[in-house]
Amino acid sequence: MTKWVYDFAEGSKEMRELLGGKGANVAEMTRVLGPERVPAGFTITTEACVEYMKAQRSEPEGMAEQVAEALDRLQEMAGKTLGDRDDPLLVSVRSGARESMPGMLDTVLNLGLNDESVNGLAENTDNERFAWDSYRRFVQMFGNVSRGIAGEKFEDAIKAAKDQRGVSEDTELDVDALKELTQTFKDIYAQETGEDFPQDPQEQLRHSIRAVFDSWVGNRARAYRRQNHIPDDWGTAVNVQQMVFGNKGDTSGSGVAFSRDEVTGAPEPSGDFLPNAQGEDVVSGVRTPRDISEMREWMPEVHEQLMEILRKLEAHYKNMQDTEFTVEEGQLYMLQTRNAKRPAQAAVRFAVDAVSENLLDRAQALMTIDPGTLDALLHPTFDPKADFDVLASGVNASPGAAKGEIVFTAADAVAAAEDGRDVILVRPFTDAEDVAGFHAARGILTSEGGKASHAALVARGMGRPAVVGAQALEIDLAAKTVSVNGTKLHEGDRIAIDGTKGQVTTDDVPLVEARVDENFEEVLRWADELRRLDVRTNADTPEDATRARELGAQGIGLCRTEHMFMAEDRQPKMRAMIMADDRDSRKEALAELLPLQQEDFEGIFKAMAGLPVTIRLLDPPLHEFLPNAEDLAAAVERARLEDAHDLPRLERLLERVHEISEENPMLGTRGCRLGILYPEIYEMQVHAILRAAKAAAEPPHPEIMIPLVDYEHEIEIMRELVKSIGDQEGLEIGTDYTVGTMIELPRACFVADRIARFADFFSFGTNDLTQTALGFSRDDVESKFVPTYLERSIIDRSPFETIDKPGVGWLVRLGAWVGREAHPGLQLGICGEHGGDPESVVFFHRAGLDYVSCSPFRVPIARIAAAQAAIRYPIGRWD
Ligand code: ADP
Ligand code: MG
Ligand code: MG
Q1: What b/e sequence results for 522-532 when a residue is b if at least 16 CB atoms lie within 10 Å of its CB, and e otherwise?
Q2: Whole-number Å distance between alpha carbons of 459 and 852
Q3: Which residues surround ligand 2, an ion (CB under 5 A)?
Q4: Residue 109: is it exposed, middle or buried by C-beta count within 10 angstroms (0-12/13-18/19+)?
Q5: 3-state class of 826 per DSSP?
Q6: Which of 313, 319, 372 is nearest to 344 (CA)?
Q7: What is the DSSP string of 30-83?
Q8: Concatenated DSSP letters for 223-274?
Q9: Is the pLDDT of residue 879 over 60?
Q10: Pocket-testing residue among 42, 92, 98, 140, ligand 1, by greatest number of atoms within 8 A of Cβ
Q11: Strand ranges (DSSP E) for 420-555?
């Protein structure tokens, strides 16, 4: 027979998968602090919840009996019986999943009260008011949780009772008022459910347990799980625990306490408490709580005990704790503890302090940091103390805050930046043509798209704050206005966005500057000592490269060359190259681009001062450098009407656009296919790279990367091409420079051994590899079917955010393994967006790669994540 129920005395913190976080930690506290500090009880397992859900909401066999037995043991220990008319036992029925889901799941307090036991409780405690206050709370919570009766129904009745008696606080309602209110609540219950409020405590318990199970599949909980990547099939445990009462008078109370300041991480405990209150009063905001330090005046001994317990728990868990406590007539009880969620600054401060206090060693301290939150330390944010009105909310796509005037086009953003004005680029969505605007703007705001939309990716890559998918915004590009719930904003109006929180406001919110402070520096130094993976950056400009080095990048893992051709002074030359009728005239056009490219590379080599720089030869389809076909057709039409002199040029351009247009250009003539068709383009680029290398003061490490290789003959031909230019420049392949490939097609992973024979390195391009392996187009799917897939639990997050381990991840492992088998010294890296995603970094560590490469602002995050990977998986390989 499966064991569905565990007494607190049987559990431990290692059992959180089975007992949920709350149950496991209550059990652990019972051991560590002693049973007199933790009210007794038992936990019904998460497995029981899973079975219950599978069986269409019916309890698994044996559960009811085990609950009854556990209840008997609890009654024995408490010396009280549930529903007893003289001295009743009361219990709470508390939800508790594996990961905490604050406020998402349900809890019922004061269970066991009925029309008779309420009198027993009153007499036994000599406190009639307390007994009736508890009873009305129970009817309210039970009705709300078990039967779904709207909270306002009860709140309205409380308000009516207070108005009738001319009082303003709940605590001012006297016994008679509470008796009447309890009756009113029971009437509401009967009206809403068509049944009387259940008097049998066993029935109350059964219903409440079911209600907690049911809350797991409630809409609120499901939405939370999707946001936080918590699987739907974990289930919640249910904890049944003897009640202790904080609402028994002036020597009772309830509160929450952190073992250290939860905002700054400073070593002083923080928290809130309320005298004469039950736990939910503290968090609900009905009454204003008092600071934990004031407990010292209220009850000095209890305060001292609490401080001692916080120290003890922190030392035991080796992590900052977040606790709930209740004082019943001077006796302190601990009801919950868990590792405190904390903002980045507190996380970093705690890690450093914990090491200097000898609480943790460096590796342990590093493991307490959630690298995903560290973003906040690297960007300015809204002043957390500021008051402002939120105009609209959207997806927090790229962290940091920014203020500026609204502009609607990239060109306007560029013009404004040249005038020295700060602007926010506001668009429904963005595409490649808007990229210049990202550089010029302080921040990006869109009304469509999600975390993996073009706007989000580019903004994160550049470290520009962005809020995307703010659906309340109606953006009229023609009129240059934004309408939001009745407010209309025009070009030039000032707005502020916080990409860390996903908020938009018209208020002039003060910003607080980010800086890598001493604590963060220290933690990063430890990470560098512990990690095995190198961390490089994706950077196309000397500015980005410099920024990334400041943040600890050990080289460039991906320098894309196409942006260099998008710049205004380059575009006409690039177009001339594409328009060339034959190879010779193309070479002439390329000759003009060569010195410009060379300058670009010189700048980058200088910024990287001898560190490796992987440069990808031209990758995108050529049509991206020409005007869009529709715009061009319209221009031709206009020129024809006006009989303009440049009509023939426009017509020729349109013809060329048609010639090179493809049904699906992302699967078309791009990557090394360009190099095969137009070798002179790659030749020019290689000359530029190698001449820049020769000109550099500190000899750089150029790694020339051939994109989109499918066949070994492609890389063979390209390697030969690069080498022949290298020979012309008098440089030695393998020493002065290396040649490798971006692995971004499934076929390349399968034939990695053949490709590796012609490559010095592989760099996994996981963005395109995800697109091609899944057959998903990144720009399209985000807003189309991905939301539904998340909704239906087909996937639990976008594969463009965290590597799809069993699918795309397997291809990476295969490519790495097979490639190294054929070429033992092969260098392996990854340069997709995933290189900055902590969970993916752990995966790449285990796949045996040598480095990850990510956008400059994610470099510190990757350093920490790589260290955590090395701590968790010291061997660093699957094999
Ligand atoms: P949540 O997960 O929403 O915090 P909890 O199960 O922790 O829900 O309970 C809600 C409130 O009720 C908390 O303030 C908690 O301290 C209090 N509470 C829960 N069980 C008891 C109990 N046995 N005695 C007194 N207070 C309790
Ligand atoms: Mg709680
Ligand atoms: Mg690619």
Answers
A1: bbbebbeebbb
A2: 20
A3: 336
A4: buried
A5: coil
A6: 372
A7: HHHH-GGGS--EEEE-HHHHHHHHHTTS-PPTTHHHHHHHHHHHHHHHHT-EET
A8: HHHHHTT--TTS-EEEEEEE---S-SSTT-EEEEEESS-TTT--SS-EEEEE
A9: no
A10: 92
A11: 423-427, 443-446, 466-468, 474-476, 481-484, 487-490, 494-498, 503-505, 511-512, 534-538
* Distance (Å) from CA 564 to ligand 3 centroid: 16
Position of tokens 């699906």?
664
The number of the ligand nearest the C-alpha atom of 334 reads 1
Average pLDDT over residues 500-525: 89
d(CA 759, CA 756): 5
Residue 515 has pLDDT above 80, yes or no: no
- For 112, the token pair is 């066991």
Per the listing, tokens 């490939």 go with 741
Give the integer Cα–Cα distance in Å for 614 and 537.
Answer: 10
User: Most confidently modeled of 497-501, 509-513, 697-701, 760-764?
Assistant: 760-764
Pocket of ligand 1 contains residue 208 by CB under 6 Å? no
As a whole number, mean pLDDT of residues 110-123 equals: 95
Confidence bin at 843 (pLDDT 50/70/90): very high
Average pLDDT, stretch 448-466? 79
Question: Which residues have a Cβ under 8 Å from the Cβ of 537 and sit 6 or more positions away?
Answer: 544, 545, 548, 549, 551, 553, 555, 556, 557, 853, 854, 855, 856, 859
* Gap from CA of 363 to ligand 2 centroid (Å): 30
Using alpha carbons, list the distances in angstroms from residue 282 to 136, 290, 322, 814. Answer: 18, 9, 14, 54
Query: Probe ligand 1: pick from 38, 106, 107, 274, max atoms within 8 Å of CB?
Result: 107
* pLDDT at position 877 over 70: no
Cβ neighbours of residue 91 closer than 8 Å, sequence gap 6 or more: 41, 74, 82, 111, 112, 205, 240, 241, 242, 243
Summarised one tens digit per residue, pLDDT across range 783-796 is 788 878 887 888 88
What average pLDDT does the segment 318-322 reach?
A: 95
Length of the chain: 879
CA dihedral 507, 510, 515, 519 (to 10 degrees): -110
H/E/C letters for each residue in 92-140? EEEEEECCCCCCCCCEEEEECCCCCHHHHHHHHHCCHHHHHHHHHHHHH
Contact in structure between 855 and 537 (CB atoms under 8 Å): yes
pLDDT, one tens digit per residue, over 171-181 is 889 999 999 99
Position 673 scores a pLDDT of 97
Q: What 3-state DSSP class applies to 2?
A: coil
Q: Which residue has the tokens 């797991």?
A: 216
Question: CA-CA distance, 582 to 585, in Å (whole number)?
Answer: 6
Number of alpha carbons in the 13 Å side-chain half-sphere of residue 721: 25
Answer yes or no: 831 catalytic.
yes
pLDDT value of residue 802: 93
CB 616 within 8 A of CB 560: yes
- Which percentage of the chain shows pLDDT scores above 70? 98
| 734 backbone φψ class: left, alpha, beta (φ>0; ψ -120 to 50) | left
Count CA atoms within 13 Å of residue 396 on its CB side. 15
Atom of ligand 1 nearest to the CA of 282: 14
Confidence of residue 375 (pLDDT cuts 50, 70, 90): confident
* 559 flagged as catalytic: no
For residues 733 and 726, is the Cβ–Cβ distance under 8 A? yes
Residue 863 sits at the vertex; the CA angle it makes with 858 and 867, to the nearest 5 degrees, is: 145
Please say if the pLDDT value at position 256 is more than 60.
yes
What does DSSP assign to residue 507?
S
**pLDDT given at position 286:** 62
Q: Which of 49, 559, 831, 854 is catalytic?
A: 831
Pairing between β-strand 395-398 and β-strand 270-275 as defined by DSSP bridges? unpaired
Q: Which pTM value belongs to this model?
A: 0.84
For the stretch 606-642, pLDDT in tens is 999 999 999 999 999 999 899 888 889 999 999 999 9
